[in-house]
Design goal:
About 35% of the residues lie in helices and about 20% in strands. The chain has helices at about 55-70, 90-95, 100-115, 135-140, 155-160, 165-175; strands spanning about 25, 30-35, 40-45, 75-80, 85, 120-125, 130, 145, 155.
Length: about 180
C-alpha cells in the first residue's frame, strides 16, 4: 500500500500510516523512542506542529544520541497528528535577540547536518505536513516515505524570497 509504514518500523501495523504508529515505549517529553530489532522509531512531539525551535532541535539531537548509544541499526523519524514539522517556529524566533537568533541558526545548521550525516540509515516517515525547515529535516534523511492525503511538503520560503541557509540548500541539493 503506497504511503504505508513498512512492517519493519517499530510497533507498525501493516498498512498503518506513520501518524498511526502506537505511542513510543520510552517517553522523553518532546519525543518518544521505541525499539524493535535494532531499529529505533523517534516520534517528535514538540508542540502543536513540531515547529523547529531550540527545544525541538535539542529533542532531535538527544534522540539521535540515544539511537547511537543504543547501537541502533537504523532510525525512523516521524511526527504526530497532522505534522511531521511545520518548519521554523517563527513566533518563538521573532522574540529572540539578534545574537540568540544567530546562535539558533547555527544550531539549526548543526542539527540538520547531523541528521544528514547520521552514520546509520535514517528514514523520514512523513504522516503530515513537512514545510520549510520541516521539509529540510525530511530531506536530511537517507530516504523519505509519505502518506497519501492532505499533507503537504515543500520549501515555501523559496517562493517567498526568504534567505535559505547554506546547510539547507546543500541538503536539498543532495536529497
Amino acid at each position: 500500500m503506497p504511503g504505508a509504514v513498512p512492517s519493519a518500523v517499530p510497533g507498525a501495523v501493516p498498512g498503518a500510516v506513520p501518524s498511526a504508529v502506537p505511542s513510543a515505549v520510552e517517553d522523553v517529553g518532546p519525543y518518544g523512542l521505541s525499539w524493535q530489532d535494532g531499529i529505533v522509531l523517534v516520534q517528535l512531539r514538540c508542540g502543536k506542529a513540531n515547529a523547529l525551535n531550540p527545544r525541538t532541535l535539542a529533542a532531535i539531537d538527544q534522540a539521535l544520541d540515544g539511537a547511537e548509544r543504543g547501537g541502533a541499526r537504523g532510525v525512523v523519524l516521524t511526527g504526530y497528528d497532522r505534522f511531521f514539522s511545520a518548519g521554523l517556529d517563527l513566533v518563538t524566533l521573532y522574540d529572540l535577540a539578534p545574537a540568540a537568533l544567530d546562535a539558533f541558526m547555527r544550531e539549526f545548521d548543526r542539527v540538520m547536518l547531523r541528521v544528514f550525516a547520521f552514520p546509520r540509515p535514517l528514514v523520514a516517515a512523513i504522516g503530515g505536513h513537512a514545510v520549510a525547515g520541516g521539509c529540510v529535516l525530511a530531506l536530511a534523511g537517507d530516504a523519505r516515505v509519505m502518506t497519501i492525503g492532505e499533507a503537504r511538503i515543500g520549501l515555501n520560503e523559496i517562493r517567498l524570497g526568504v534567505p535559505f541557509p547554506a546547510s539547507a540548500l546543500e541538503i536539498a541539493r543532495h536529497a
